[in-house]
Design brief:
The complex is a heterodimer of chains A (about 500) and B (about 325). Chain A has about 500 residues and is of the alpha/beta class. Chain A has 17 helices and 22 strands. In chain A, helix 14 runs parallel beside helix 15. Chain B has one domain: ABC transporter involved in vitamin B12 uptake, BtuC. The chains are: A alpha/beta (about 500), B mainly alpha (about 325).
Chain lengths: ~500, ~325
């Protein structure tokens, strides 16, 4: 006698000839948390989108609560009791929290919206989840992590019995993650079945009962979490064993490349002083909203500085706009590669040569094809970017290769300092290692690497020195040998005031 | 107690009210300046005329606002106005009774709305291109219905029609103004108080999120285009009643006037933002400028230039205020 609430058998789905899912089966019981694992492109999200009605399957059977179901639409999925928290934030930024939570299933009274009733119910759900926001808040004014919590509230408010969470923690702070886990445990006790997708394998142990692993669109195995280990899971995911999660290269620390003195730029960048030497990687740690991204943006000249000095190779330089930084040899690989880092609809070649056009044009402004080809080939070779053709769209590359492309387009210019903002967010284990290798490669060439990350294991594993920020200030600096998660967290929570961060 | 205070606070806090209040404060000095330049501006006679001048701009502004809030645009408005004017006039000169003529005109105009909605939401054409196409088609229809001639007078039989849409007065206000008020009340209610209205904002704000929440995108988009073509149809009938005949180029560039009224009133061309109260202010600023500059003796050319500047400045102001607020928000975050 089984109590499976979802039984998916032999599901296949292809997109314009490419098999995204090939004969995949999976089951979900009520009252369990199932982790669906696999590398990027393994088909996890596709499978979940089929279950929630975003895509329709090409083949296979789907049984929900013991009943065969045909094609589902998002609306039908809602009615069946399936709710999904999507990987990308999917909120209407101009609408309020209440309006978002009830979108598509508004409560009406004789054709008129019952805002009062909906606000009341929203408040109840928010209280239940311990989320401290008013239902009337416009979602666009909330921080990313609060928006993420609203998304959770929205899914739960549908009284779903089958809950799919696609990387719900990618934008949450550790305190919020704890809150979310408490919620998940409660839902589990209420008999919900939860499918949990995450790249943060470390967090699985807190909630997960069972894991199902996919690779390259195929079903690999299902395991009881208690009877397995992380190394085993990872080896199933990548199909081979990863020896070193954090490859470390020792370099001799050279001369000082970059010095930032008394940098001020708004409330999130206050009196920042930092140094960067040849042959080292400096990690900037802190909670979400600690001002790390803002600091890199101020250094790079995206945001206005109020005061401060930037010294590169012993010479003071002025950076008022990104072009100044690029000319001086400081480049930034932004957090959102697809939005800020690449022109995703242009070819790989065009992306690579965009910041280097001045070097491959003749005096009339015409591009020299041979020089261009040489430059592109060199860059691809140097960073081992895996691609079908240099004319393919940047969009066609995997996350890790996109990251390489972002960096390589700048490095064709002989840069001195590379700043990474969350370089591995949303990237799977194997590609993460490639990005660490990339950073090590830069370090060995004598380029200073500054990187912002929310993942402490990564900060500890890769950096030589760690700077910790809190509320726009640097609250601590640690040598990697003396650093530990506890120490970093201690510095990261040195708030000036005890005031709790309330969502605006 | 402080119930009244709460009420005012609630109004000010309403989404999109900020921009409306800003622009409303622009409208007041504008009226005062024109009043000083020429005292006739404030005469009862002129106020009546002014309101009647504002009404059609408000009506098409409401239609365009609906479409803009969904994140689309309707370029066919002006041509549908012309089509409505020509079809109704041609039918009436051929002796069809006005009520039947209105119904046939309405059906034709709503068809354009359905075509717009279908092309944009189901065929996924960019709204600019889709409505550019229907704009040309509708103008063509306006020309073809009477064999490429403007119509003769719609005649004495249509006296009632002309009074209903333009010349008649009810409780001291011209009927045209009453029609605009009625349309505003109904569509404002739909936009702010019903599910359809909520969905119109939602798809303009984030079409993907709306789709995943089970919102019917094509139905909602089509409804917005239907409202737009309904409004255009009404304005066409008003123009027909005004001149007592059908003119083929009636409503020329009204789609842009409608964009102007919406945008001055705070409706964002990017979708998801704006309220119809703003469209009233936007249309009023438009009408006051036209009327006031005319009284001040400014030639048409100058009027055009001034209005063009006002459109750009009001949106620029909005952007400055909004990014200002944005910075403020960032500052106040802990």
């Amino acid at each position: 006698m089984d109590n499976y609430i979802v039984k998916a058998k032999h599901i296949s789905k292809s997109f314009s000839g490419v098999m995204a899912l090939d004969d995949v089966s999976f089951n979900l019981k009520s009252g369990e948390v199932l982790a669906l694992l696999g590398e990027n492109g393994a088909g996890k999200s596709t499978l979940m989108k089929i279950l929630s009605g975003v895509y329709t399957r090409d083949e296979g059977e789907l049984e929900i609560f013991g009943k065969q179901v045909g094609n589902i639409t998002p609306k039908k999925a809602q009615e069946l009791g399936i709710a999904i928290i999507h990987q990308e934030l999917n909120m209407c930024a101009h609408l309020t929290v209440m309006e978002n939570i009830f979108l598509g299933r508004e409560i009406q009274n004789a054709g008129v919206l019952s805002n009062h009733e909906m606000t009341k119910q929203t408040q109840k759900i928010l209280d239940q989840l311990g989320i401290d926001i008013s239902p009337d808040t416009i979602v666009g004014t909330l921080s990313v992590s609060k928006q993420q919590m609203v998304e959770v509230a929205k899914a739960i408010s549908t009284n779903a019995k089958i809950l799919i969470m696609d990387e719900p923690t990618s934008a949450l702070t550790s305190r919020e993650i704890d809150e979310l886990f408490t919620i998940i445990r409660k839902l589990k006790n209420d008999g919900c079945g939860i499918v949990y997708i995450s790249h943060r394998l470390e967090e699985l142990k807190h909630i997960v009962d069972r894991v199902t692993i996919l690779r390259d669109g195929k079903y690999i195995t299902s395991l009881d979490f208690k009877e397995t280990s992380l190394p085993e899971i990872i080896s199933y995911m990548v199909g081979r064993e990863i020896k070193e999660k954090f490859p470390r290269v020792e370099c001799k620390r050279g001369k000082k490349i970059l010095e930032v003195k008394n940098l001020n730029a708004g409330p999130m960048v206050r009196d920042i002083n930092l140094d960067l030497y040849e042959g080292e990687i400096v990690g900037i740690a802190g909670l979400v909203g600690a001002g790390r991204t803002e600091t890199t943006r101020a250094i790079f000249g995206v945001d206005q500085k109020q005061s401060g000095e930037i010294i590169l190779d012993g010479k003071p330089i002025t950076i008022n706009k990104p072009m100044d930084a690029i000319r001086a040899g400081i480049v930034l690989a932004p957090e959102d590669r697809r939005k800020d880092g690449l022109c995703i609809r242009l070819s790989i070649r065009e992306n690579l040569t965009l910041p280097n056009l001045d070097r491959i044009i003749n005096k009339f402004g015409v591009v020299n094809k041979n020089k261009e080809k040489k430059l592109v080939e060199e860059a691809i070779d140097n960073f081992q970017i895996k691609l079908a053709s240099m004319e393919a769209n940047a969009d066609s590359l995997s996350g890790g290769n996109q990251q390489k492309l972002v960096v390589s387009k700048w490095l064709a210019r002989k840069s001195r300092v590379v700043i990474f903002d969350e370089p591995t967010r949303g990237i799977d284990v194997a590609v993460k290692v490639e990005i660490y290798n990339l950073m090590n490669h830069l370090k060995q060439q004598g380029i200073g690497v500054l990187f912002v990350s929310s993942e402490l294991p990564e900060i500890l594993g890769i950096s030589d020195r760690i700077i910790v920020m809190c509320e726009g200030r640097i609250t601590g600096e640690l040598n990697v040998k003396e650093a530990s998660q506890d120490k970093i967290l201690e510095y990261a929570t040195r708030f000036e005031t005890k005031k709790e961060a309330v969502g605006l | 107690m402080d119930n009244k205070d709460n009420f005012i606070k609630r109004i000010v806090k309403t989404r999109g009210m900020g921009q409306v209040i800003t622009v409303a404060f622009g409208l007041i000095p504008l009226c005062i300046v024109f009043g000083i330049l020429n005292p006739i501006f404030f005469s009862g006679q002129n106020i009546g005329n002014l309101l009647r001048q504002i009404a059609p701009i408000l009506i098409i502004g409401i239609g365009q606002s609906y479409v803009l809030i969904t994140g689309n645009i309707d370029l066919s408005i002006g041509s549908v106005v012309g089509m409505s004017c020509m079809i109704s006039a041609t039918l009436m000169t051929k002796g069809v009774n006005p009520l039947t003529a209105i119904i046939i005109t309405l059906i034709t105009c709503l068809t354009i709305g359905i075509i717009n909605g279908t092309l944009v939401s189901i065929c996924k054409l960019p709204p600019f291109i889709a409505t550019l196409g229907t704009m040309t088609i509708a103008r063509g229809i306006a020309q073809i219905v009477n064999n490429n001639y403007n119509t003769d007078s719609i005649g004495e039989g249509a006296r009632g029609f002309r009074d209903f849409f333009y010349y008649g007065k009810t409780i001291g206000l011209y009927n045209t103004v009453w029609i605009a008020i009625a349309i505003w009340v109904v569509f404002n209610f739909i936009l702010s108080k019903t599910r359809t209205g909520r969905h119109i904002y939602a798809i303009g704000s984030n079409i993907e999120a709306s789709k995943l929440s089970g919102v019917n995108i094509s139905a909602t988009t089509t409804k917005a285009y239907l409202v737009s073509s309904f409004c255009s149809c009404t304005v066409g009938l008003i123009i027909c009643a005004t001149s007592g005949m059908g003119t083929m180029d009636a409503g020329n560039s009204y789609e842009m006037y409608a964009v102007a009224a919406s945008v001055i009133g705070g409706v964002s061309t990017l979708g998801g933002q704006g309220i119809l109260l703003g469209t009233i202010i936007g249309a009023s600023i438009w009408g006051v400028l036209q009327n006031g500059l005319q009284f001040a003796g400014a030639p048409v050319a100058i009027r055009n230039i001034v209005i063009g500047i006002i459109v750009v400045v009001s949106v620029l102001l909005d952007v400055v205020i909004r990014t200002g607020t944005f910075r403020f928000r960032k500052l106040s975050k802990p």
